Amino acid sequence: MIEDQELLIETGLKQTISAEQAWHYNILPKSSVDGELEFYADKKTANEFLKEELEMLFGKKIVLDLLPTDTIQKALSRHYRIADAGKSEKTKHLFNIESDDFLISIVKEANEINCSDIHFEAFEDKCRIRFRIDGKLIERYIINKSEYPALINKIKIKANLDIAEKRLPQDGRIFFDTGVSKFDIRVSVLPTLHGEKIVLRLLSRQSIGMDITELGFSENQLQEYLEGIKKTSGIVLISGPTGSGKTTTLYATLKIINKEESNILTIEDPIEYTLEGINQVQLKESIGLTFASALRTFLRQDPDIIMLGEIRDKDTAQMAIRAALTGHLVLSTIHTNSAWGTISRLADMGVPAFLLSGTLNLTIAQRLVRLLCPKCRKEIDFNTKEFPRNYKPPYLLSKIFESVGCGSCYYTGYKGRKAVYEVIPVDSVLQEKIKNSEFDVLNYLHEKDIKTLADQSFDLVAEGKTTISEVYPILLNSEF
């Protein structure tokens, strides 16, 4: 029976009503044929007046298919995410691209449900809008091909971009004020086969106020990290893929070391958050303002601390080493799979081993892991076959938890994310190994009881905070 099944609703049909209308009336669209709208409705709250009110609202014949409250509530949570479902009001139809409020409504909705990115995408027959929530994309709107260019132009105008330029990528920024919250939006425009694709990155100011103790460091890792950033010179490197939380870690770090007596300079691409008391520079490679050229100028600006958005090439790596050698603390990111992998990456970029051994204070790797919803997680028997074939768990488990889904987590089974870290302080033994180009240090790291990304992830599974499927890619890439 439908009562025991998940209600599947096409994205195009979802747009028949707004999230506020769905929650207010406890309804979901079932079909729309020949001027007739059919809705799933809550049998407990539906009454003789509901059909009449909906017919007046939509100007069409309404048919109601009554289902149990639990089925309706579950479907509403999954298909119509909303911050305060109980406070919804009867609002006018949300999906109206011609309205100037449409774009504002999308951004407000995304911000309320903690979406990090909004994707506007064009294909041969249709266009769509997707939200990234807790690292995963969900389809939210379908747009007619004819209406898409107008929407793209509205975004470009707000971001001060050239609406006539449709052949080249463009980058911009929008300051958004909802009246309740203020935040910046980073805009990236990319020409594709069937039209321009735009990604809006919502830069929540919550990351600025994030306390470093809340990020995910273990007690020992946090102590090692704080010791590394309190040094007056040297390099601290953070590695990880895009979207792994490196920027949040860097800004939480800058918040700690931002003192009146320190001159802090940053070169970023782009500047994601503005910080009071810190001199931030936006990268502009088109006019020659690169990481390396900015660093050269920074050294003449009497800096104490320098933050590089990313070490991408040989010139930047060598300038970072030079800055560290001349008595400055340098913070930066680099793309590698593990904390120790940064050493070989820098060596490949041409940084001499003897300079690297004398300047590197700390190397870190991090990933973001989705956490299980504490209200609906389910305990199950553990099966070793769920691990990657070559992974050896540090200890045995008898029980683990799996995701289920409830109204609190929008029936995803997950709620929130946490960073897992791998922190390697470069001591005298590691300095000697780097100087001699001895990169096989796994046994020594084990002796020092340094937790790897895989170890941290496995611990989260053992504590019932996440699932094996969520950390599987990390376990798969375990290096020691």
Tell me what the structure shows.
- By secondary structure, the chain is of the alpha/beta class.
- Helix content is 31%, strand content 27%.
- The chain is built from 16 helices and 18 strands.
- The chain has helices at 11-14, 19-25, 48-58, 69-79, 101-112, 148-158, 219-229, 246-257, 291-298, 314-325, 341-348, 353-359, 428-435, 442-447, 453-462, 468-476; strands at 27-33, 36-42, 61-67, 115-122, 127-133, 136-143, 170-177, 182-192, 195-203, 234-239, 264-268, 279-282, 305-308, 329-334, 360-372, 378-381, 399-402, 414-425.
- The strands form four sheets. Strands 12-11-13-14-10-15-18 form a seven-stranded mixed beta sheet, with helices on both faces. It has a six-stranded antiparallel beta sheet with strand order 6-5-4-9-8-7. A three-stranded mixed beta sheet has the order 1-2-3.
- β1 and β2 form a beta hairpin.
- The longest helix is centred in the first third of the chain and has 12 residues, at 101-112.
- The radius of gyration is 26 Å and the shape is globular.
- Mean pLDDT is 87; it is low at 85-94.
